[in-house]
Amino acid sequence: MSEKFYPTRHTTIGAVIDAGLHIHAFCFECGFDQDMDLERVAGELGRKQSVLPVYLVPKLHCPRCGSKNLATVLVTEGSEVSAEQIQHLKSRRGGES
Q1: pLDDT tens digits for 52-95?
Q2: Separation CA 49–CA 11 (nearest Å)
């Protein structure tokens, strides 16, 4: 089954904040996961920082273990990242099943 990707207009930290969305980060090394503090990230990286994982993830590290082996997911207001989504991220990274 092929994955479907949908375009989004929320491509910067500022646009995500303004839209009331969240970015959830997951560490592949220690399993830590949480919604990111986007106001803090905007203060450090700027509101124009891209949220596309290829540009954002290399600038992040896990607050628990310091690893840079992370994934991010754009999350809408009122929804949560499910265990199934995290398992999908692990499988795409070659992690545990």
Answers
A1: 989 999 999 999 999 999 999 888 766 666 667 667 666 766 55
A2: 8
Stated pTM of the model: 0.74
Would you call 20 helix, strand, or coil by DSSP? coil
**What is the residue whose two structure tokens read 């999350």?**
75
Q: How far is CA 19 from CA 8, 14, 27, 47, 75, in A?
A: 11, 9, 25, 13, 11
Cα 31 to Cα 41, 53, 59, 61, 90: the distances in Å are 21, 18, 18, 13, 10
Q: What is the spatial distance between Cα 69 and Cα 74, in angstroms, rounded to a whole number? A: 17
Strand arrangement, sheet containing 70-75: 33-35, 22-27, 70-75
